[in-house]
Amino acid sequence: MATTFDRTQKLAGLPPAHVLKEGYKPTINDKLVKEEALVMIKETFESSLKKNVNLVRVTNPMFVTKTSGFNDNLNGVERPATFAPRDFSKTKLEVPFSLAKWKRWALHYYDVPAGKGIVTDFRGLRCDDDVDYTHSLYVDQFDWEKHITPEDRNVEYLKETVRGIYKALYDTEQAVAKAYGIEPNLPEEIFFANTDEMIKEYPHVTPKERENILCEKYGAVFLMGIGGLKPDGTLRHDGRAPDYDDWITQRPDGGHGLNGDILVWNPLLKQSFEISSMGIRVNPETMMKQLDLCECLERQNYMWHKMLLDGTLPQTIGGGVGQSRLCQYMLRCAHIGEVQHGWYNPEEVEELKKNGINLLGMVGVDSDPAATSSQ
């Protein structure tokens, strides 16, 4: 998701000003009722997702070895949370940013046939994420991956899968609306767009502004073509690692990339809101091209990359659906901290309280009073 976060600004992680000025009132005040709602949302969505995309729930690791190359490198610059086992000081273990690579290996490990996939209840840490009203250091998502055939590496298969995920999203909102009296907002069908066309149509606005234009007009959008560079050397829309999503393959519409983001219009925040990042994964040829473009060909020597290059790992499509982001949207919450236990700027926490936005857990109770930004 493109962002407007500006870390140089004081209290940059607060929700939009209009949310604070209009007298925000949470949909659910009772803490236990809210917890029941969070469980209901997650269970409803996961059940529908598994049915629509043909997935099976599996367990997953909390950490991987650095040398395996199994960690998702995101944009390639983020720091992973790293530690060493007490008696193996030379071994470096990393808490994954996501399971983008592990899941592809898991399809091989579980011998999952083409047409079937897996989904996990992933929990991770992202030390370098912008901490604001939609982002947290703590990541919880339904990380899924599906075995496909080489012939399925096309736009129509991508769209078919997106429709299955979106139906799970739509059905979940309908269930939440019925259970908690929340007015549904999602259209029955999702609209498909791509970054190449949006850049041509709106060349002088930011990626976030393009997302807002689309989502306000259509309500729900799958924006194809995330990652890669424009001719001027700047990001085409947002960053993507070179070794999971395919952002280089040319589509029939002339654009590039077999990946994208599921975005919806958030009626409370009055802006686009990312629910999922996903895509058809690289094959050996596209991975090498993308590694070369990103000047990180050394990764081909990692175990995971070798397994992809030698044909051990199957061709796949996959992505992640943020659980807390999903719940924040469904319950029309102003801040992601209302649906998950996290850590946030102590000054912002106090400002949120003044505006009737109370975050879950010990936020503000255990904050270091001396905590200040290094920026």
In a few lines, what is going on in this structure?
The protein has 10 helices and 11 strands. The protein is an alpha+beta fold and 375 residues long.
Instruction: Figure out the total of helices.
Output: 10
Uncertain segments: none
Strand order of the largest sheet: 1-5-6-11-10-9-8-7
Count of DSSP strands: 11
Amino- and carboxy-terminal Cα gap: 23 Å
What do the pLDDT scores average to? 91
Specify the helix fraction band. 25-40%
Note the main sheet.
8 strands, mixed
Whole-angstrom Rg = 20 Å
- Sequence of secondary-structure elements: HHEEEEHEEHEHHEEEHHEHH
**Principal-axes shape call:** globular
The fraction of residues in strands falls at: 15-25%
* Structural class computed from helices and strand pairing: alpha+beta
Describe what this molecule looks like in 3D:
The strands form two sheets. The protein has an eight-stranded mixed sheet with strand order 1-5-6-11-10-9-8-7. The protein is 31% helix and 17% strand. The radius of gyration is 20 Å and the shape is globular. It is α+β, with helices and mostly antiparallel strands and 375 residues long. The longest helix is centred in the middle third of the chain and has 26 residues. The chain is built from ten helices and eleven strands. A hairpin with a 4-residue loop joins β9 and β10.
